[in-house]
Amino acid sequence: MNGIALTLRALHHGERSLARHLVAAGERHSTEHEVRHVAIDLAGWSRAHADRLAETAADRDVRLFGPDGPGGPPPAGPLATLREKAAEALGDRPEPGLLLLWDLRRLHLAAAGNSVYWEMLAQAAQAARDEALLGLVTDCHPRTLRQMRWTNTMIKVLSPQTLTAL
């Protein structure tokens, strides 16, 4: 397996993981409506990236799908409801704010890791003169950068009040 195939595999795993973490964070912080809705939308981007990566890898005879198939794991039914109820019960206590900051940090680092892989694929695509791979990166990497900017902005907005309220 060559380096491009390994990078496709690592990025596919990273995008699927980021999608799961975004959904979980959105459910865990359901009382923060902006976080919930934006996180769910951003998870859709990561799922779409993973699907496109799988298609690109398949064209190169590399299979990326895990046991959950192309769309990733099924939605977390009862667990999602439990997270929502826990978020409502915690209300405005400072601990949920700290948890939200921790989740945003984790999401930011995951998106940053994916961004590095996208950059590596872009460089490899240019070196190999692989227009299909370069097109994939050109379409998907900007969304990953937007995911990073959103998490960074949310951290900047929430940190002052959350960290000084303790």
Explain this structure.
It is built from 5 helices and no strands. It is mainly alpha-helical and 166 residues long. It has one domain: Up-down Bundle (Ferritin), CATH 1.20.1260.10. The chain is elongated, with a radius of gyration of 17 Å.
Number of helices: 5
CATH topology name, in short, is: Ferritin
Question: Helical amount among residues, as a percent range?
Answer: over 70%
Principal-axes geometry comes out as elongated
CATH architecture: Up-down Bundle
Instruction: Give a short account of the largest sheet.
Output: none
Strand residues, percent:
under 5%
How confident overall, as mean pLDDT?
A: 87
Low-confidence stretches: 70-74
DSSP, total strands: 0
What sequence of helices (H) and strands (E) makes up the elements? Answer: HHHHH
Structural class of the helix and strand makeup?
Answer: mainly alpha
Radius of gyration: 17 Å
Provide the CATH superfamily: Ferritin, core subunit, four-helix bundle
List the helices and strands and how they pair.
Blueprint: H1 3-28, H2 33-59, H3 77-90, H4 94-128, H5 131-164
Could you list some keywords that capture this structure?
single chain, 166 residues, mainly alpha, 5 helices, Ferritin, elongated
Task: Provide a compact summary of the structure.
This protein is mostly helical.
